[in-house]
Structure formats: structure tokens, C-alpha cells
Specification:
Blueprint lengths: L2 H31 L5 H8 L1 H4 L2 H12 L4 H10 L7 H11 L1 H13 L3 H9 L4 H9 L4 H16 L3 H7 L9 H10 L3 H28 L1
Helix pairs in contact: 1-6, 1-7, 1-10, 1-12, 4-11, 6-11, 7-10, 8-9, 10-13, 12-13
Length: 217
């Protein structure tokens, strides 16, 4: 069994999950409570990975992050390495690809919050950040947990975007889903079955965890 692919997948999911959820918190809060022009456009753009085929998203990310793009050239100039076909590029692509899976549960959880709690905090002189961390976040732990679980599960199942941006470099960018595909191509069904079983068990545990969170929320 290709244990290096499982390790790369786990490392990717464990890195992307906390980073993405943290970055999405203010965005979800703004979409849940904010009133501004273009809100629908922002939300539609953030949710685009839900409906866009992964290969299409991967292609556009490849163009945007490639060595001839402004971003790719700037990155190479700063860090001396290309952005595509690296673990860093894979992380950035995963953050974009899994964004809706962090945004939706957080936004839903914030929207369900009793607005009187926030208004009371404002009356008591609490600022926006203090209100968020002391009122909003503690009362939205179910949504936060769901976001973490969904992002983790979605990241370990990546294929199209991971292949387009990361390629298949063993020990660096070759994730479990790509390893399964390559084993099947080489008719190595035993190895493919072992990795698939690992992902199946993880996915089933994720579903059980989400069910427990929903019952407690």
C-alpha cells in the first residue's frame, strides 16, 4: 500500500482545515449579518466550487498559478520555486476548492443565532471583535465543528484539482485519490483496494461525526 500518498493526504487535510476555517470565519460572519452591495455576487463566487467541475476549476487555477502568470512569476521571484506541482500550490488550490464547505455551515450557524444576543453585547459597549469572539463564536460551535469536519473530508477526497495543480510527485503532491487511480491503471487492484478502504473508513467516521454534531446542535 502506498503509505506516502496517505501521509501526504493527511498532512494536506490537517493543514488546510484549520487555516481555511479560520480564514472563512470573518467572511461567513459578513455574509450572515452584513448588508452591502454585491453580497449575492460575493456569495455566488465563493460557492462556485460546489457546482464547477473540479477539472475546470483546476485548469483555471493552473493558469492563474502557472510560471507564466503574474502570481506564479511573483511567487518564484520571492521564494525561488514554482507554485504549481508543489505542496504549497496544492494547499492554495485546496483552500479555494474547499471554501464552500467551510463557508456554508459557518454562515448557517451564524444566521441562526439570536440577534438579541449581539444587540445586547453592543448595548453593553462590546466592540465588533469582542462581540464576535465572546458572543457569536461560543454560540456557533456546532457550525464550527461541522465546517472543520466537512473541509477535512472534502480535502482527503480531492482528485481533479489535486492532479491539475499538484501532479503526482511521490511523497510531495501525490495524494491518496491519485494513488488509487494510478494503481487501477496498472491493474494493481489490491493496492487500490487497501487505500480505498482507508478512505472509506475515514469517510464513514466523518458522516457519523457530523450526525453526532447535528444531534447536539
Amino acid at each position: 500500500m502506498d503509505t506516502s500518498a496517505i501521509w501526504v493526504t493527511a498532512k494536506l487535510a490537517l493543514f488546510v482545515t484549520p487555516v481555511l476555517v479560520t480564514l472563512t470565519l470573518p467572511l461567513a460572519y459578513g455574509l450572515a449579518f452584513g448588508r452591502f452591495r454585491g453580497k449575492g455576487l460575493v456569495e455566488a463566487t465563493c460557492n462556485l466550487p460546489l457546482v464547477l467541475p473540479p477539472t475546470v476549476l483546476g485548469f483555471y487555477l493552473l493558469v492563474a498559478m502557472g510560471p507564466r502568470s503574474p502570481l506564479g512569476q511573483a511567487w518564484e521571484g520571492l521564494f525561488g520555486e514554482r507554485l504549481v506541482f508543489t505542496f504549497t500550490g496544492l494547499v492554495i488550490a485546496s483552500l479555494i476548492y474547499s471554501l464552500p464547505f467551510a463557508l456554508q455551515p459557518l454562515k448557517t450557524s451564524f444566521a441562526k443565532l439570536d440577534r438579541r444576543l449581539i444587540e445586547t453585547a453592543w448595548v453593553l459597549g462590546k466592540g465588533p471583535w469582542e462581540t464576535f469572539f465572546k458572543v457569536v463564536l461560543p454560540n456557533s460551535l456546532g457550525g464550527l465543528a461541522s465546517a472543520c469536519v466537512l473541509v477535512f473530508a472534502h480535502t482527503i477526497g480531492e482528485f481533479g484539482v489535486a492532479l491539475m495543480i499538484g501532479g503526482s510527485i511521490p511523497g510531495q503532491t501525490k495524494v491518496a485519490s491519485i494513488a488509487i487511480f494510478e494503481h487501477v491503471e496498472m491493474l494493481e487492484y489490491g493496492s487500490a483496494a487497501m487505500i480505498s478502504l482507508v478512505l472509506l473508513v475515514i469517510s464513514y467516521l466523518v458522516l457519523l461525526l457530523i450526525s453526532c454534531i447535528e444531534r447536539k446542535d
